[in-house]
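Morning - PMV inputs below, output right after.
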Amino acid sequence: MTTTPKTIITELLPERPQSIKTVGYGEAPVNIALIKYWGKRCASFNLPVTDSLSVTVPHTLSRTHIKVIDAHEDQIYLNQQKLETNTAFAKRLSNFLNYFRDDATPAFEIYTENTVATAAGLASSASGFAALVLALNDLFSWQLDDTAISILARLGSGSACRSLWPGFVHWQAGIRDDGLDSYAKPLHDTWPGLMLGLMVVEGSAKPISSREAMQLTTQTSPLYRAWPHTVQQHLNDLRQAIQSQDFEHFGRIAEQNALAMHATMLASSPSIDYRLPASWTVIQQVYQLRRDGIAVYFTQDAGPNIKLLFEVKDYQTIAAAFPAAAIQPLFD
Ligand code: PMV
């Protein structure tokens, strides 16, 4: 029998008959990768080529309610607005929900809300799919453990498997074809004083989705060959920097990893460039502040926004240099 996401899911879910609640609820935070996931070894299971490591943005959540309805199609509400069923986001959710549908559950009604900073430019697919899986777990009273939840969230969106815990989270790539060893686990280190500043760069819609961009990079970028080794090295160095709370080492590795990811993309054919002129301006400002002796670093995902990393001792300087930044502590 060929393994499909549906067969994996059947293996993970309890065998006892499902008892369906009236409403299921789940909430999950946004996470930002410090060592990026870029490239899949299996696209239908969202299995990554490499491990990755993220930090969670506290209090920046997706909150999701779900119920079963007797209808022909799902009803999806995002931030109180009903989505047309043919929008890309609605199709993506409904395709994922197909894995959980049967005669007793033909369609679902979903209300999902993102808290303010998410709407202001932080990736919401990770927190969104993690919250959806938690809401399904509640709706069907599956009582799944964290590992199973992380695997299910990964099937919705790779980075969602890391959106289940506060603090630093490590997603191990795994080696199995069925992906049952590809899930995330929290690290237990904390770092009071570590700060994030989000610089939202206005711009048109993304030129290309992360799914397509990853595929193009792995298939056409001559630099991608160096990526798995680079990630392994960065991962070891970052874990060391976290353990010793060496901020300059930490910031340098996170920034280099983001730059290496964007370099592999730039070398793709056709080239992929998520930076807008305004992103570049922020990056230049970061470099200038460092020349002036301020320890600030940046990371960037598959979009034009820039995320600043710094310590609380530099809060005043960073807030003055970037008045538009949404600044928050990463540990309470
Ligand atoms: O999980 P996806 O398909 O949204 O991809 C996430 C890709 C990056 O945000 C660029 C990196 C990461 O590890 O989150």
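Note: The pocket of PMV is lined by residues 33, 36-37, 52, 123, 125-126, 157-159, 210-211, 301-302 (CB under 6 Å).

O.
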